[in-house]
Amino acid sequence: MSVPHYGDFGKSLNDLLNKDYPVGSAKLEVNTTTSNGIKFTVTGNKDNKTGNIVSELKTKYTDKSRGLTVTEHWNATNVIGAQVELQDAIAAGVKLDVHGSIHPSNGAKNAKAAIEFKQPSIFTRSSVDLFSKNGPTIHTDAIVGSDGFVLGGDVAYNVNDATIHRYNLAAGYSTSEYQVGLHATAKFSHFTAFYFHKVNKQVEAGAKAIWNKAASDAVSIEVGSKYTLDNQTFVKAKIDNVGRLGLGYTQVLRPGVKLALGGSFDTTRLHENVHRVGLSFVLEN
C-alpha cells in the first residue's frame, strides 16, 4: 500500500463522518465533459438559514500524455483563480503545482507554488505562500511508511520573522481492512485518536476521540457507520457524546444523477427548533 499525502491522513474516517451529509443547505452540482477532455463544473449552494447562495464555475483540462492539468474557476464573489499541475515531467513521482487567485474589485490576491515527491514508502510536499498576511510562508509536510505503519508531520515557517508558525505530527497503522491513528495538531495542543473498519462490502464503521487541552479537560467522541444497500444506494449515521445525531441517505437515481439527503438532530432537545436538514443534487455526464 502506498503512503497517503499528509493532508489525507485519516481520510477514510473523515469521509465516513463528514461526507454525504448535506446538512443545512441545498446544493446543486452539474458536471459535463467534452470530447477533448475539458470538464465543466457548476455548483450552487444555498444556506437554509441565511438564504445566501454561493456558486462557482470551474473548468478543468487534463492532458494525460504530458501529465498536465489546468484548472480555472470563477465564483459569485468575483474571485478568479487558476491552477497548473505538471506530473512526472521532471522525474517519476515529482509533481509541480502553481495556483493563485485574485479579486479584481479590491485587488486581494493569493499565490502558491509547490513541489511534491511520491514513492510507495514516502510522500513529501513543500510549498511557498507568497501573499500570506504574515509574509511569505514555507509549508512542508512528509509521510513515510513501511508494512502498514506511517509517520508524518508538517511545519510552517514564516520568512519575515524567521519563526515556525505551525507544527503537527501524525502516526498510524493501516491494512486493507482497518486503520488506526493519532494526530497531534495546533503545536501539540489538539489531539485526535481514530479508527476506521471496513467490516465487509456493505458495512463501514469508525470513531474518533478529540482532546483540546487548551480549551478543556473533556474529550469529545463521535462514532459513525455506513451501510450499502445496493450498488446505487447507501445510508449513513453518526452520533457524538453530546447527543448530536446525523443521518444521511444517498441514491443514484440513474447513471449520472445522484441525490443525497441529510439531517442533523439534537437528541437532547427534540421538541425545539434546532434541527437542520438539507439536500444535494449532482448531475454528471
UniProtKB/TrEMBL annotation:
Record organism: Rhizoclosmatium globosum
Protein name per Swiss-Prot or TrEMBL: Voltage-dependent ion-selective channel
Keywords, sorted A to Z: Ion transport, Membrane, Mitochondrion, Mitochondrion outer membrane, Porin, Transmembrane, Transmembrane beta strand, Transport
Main location: mitochondrion
GO molecular function, one term: porin activity
Keyword Protein biosynthesis: no
Entry's localization field: Mitochondrion outer membrane
Protein family membership: Belongs to the eukaryotic mitochondrial porin family.
GO cellular component: mitochondrial outer membrane; pore complex
UniProt entry tagged with the keyword Phosphoprotein: no
